[in-house]
Amino acid sequence: MLTTTQRNCLASINLAPEFITDTWDGISEASLTSDGDALSSPLESVTMTFRDVNGTVALTLSSEEAEEITIDDADAWQFTVLPKTPFGLTAGTYSWRWQFTDESGRAKTYLTGTITIV
């Protein structure tokens, strides 16, 4: 499980490189907490956006689309980014970010990182 504790800061995670022809395994059992406790308002949606080196959006995954991201427990902010075949990215290095929206409508980016497709 990928668990990140949020303390009003932006965490950065570099994902393992992926081969262009392989299935991306996604990210299973991820959760976000604030100083070890669940965040106050339940999770409404999660979006994962990948941008190329020019900043152009190359791929967006969302909990609002079937077979992309599932919210497993909204109160505990637990979610899963589902495997994707094909991944949909060409060879290169991409930045990514997760934007979270809670039930009160507050949208916030807490996690960013990079991934290389070879």
Structural description of this entry:
The protein has no helices and nine strands. It has strands at residues 3-6, 11-14, 27-34, 43-51, 57-62, 69-73, 78-81, 92-102, 107-117.
From the structure above, extract its key features.
single chain; mainly beta; disordered N terminus; 118 residues; 5-stranded mixed sheet; globular; 4-stranded mixed sheet
Outline of the structure:
The chain is mainly beta. It has strands at 3-6, 11-14, 27-34, 43-51, 57-62, 69-73, 78-81, 92-102, 107-117. The two termini are 25 Å apart.
State the oligomer. Answer: single chain
Number of strands: 9
The first-to-last residue Cα distance is 25 Å
User: CATH class, please?
Assistant: Mainly Beta
Separate helix tally: 0
Q: Based on the structure given, which CATH architecture is correct?
A: Sandwich
Overall tally of structural domains: 1
Strand order of the largest sheet: 2-9-8-4-5
Provide the CATH topology.
Immunoglobulin-like
Summarize the amount of helix as a percent range: under 10%
Q: Which regions have little confidence, pLDDT < 50, spanning 5+ residues?
A: 1-8
**Which secondary-structure class do the elements indicate?**
mainly beta
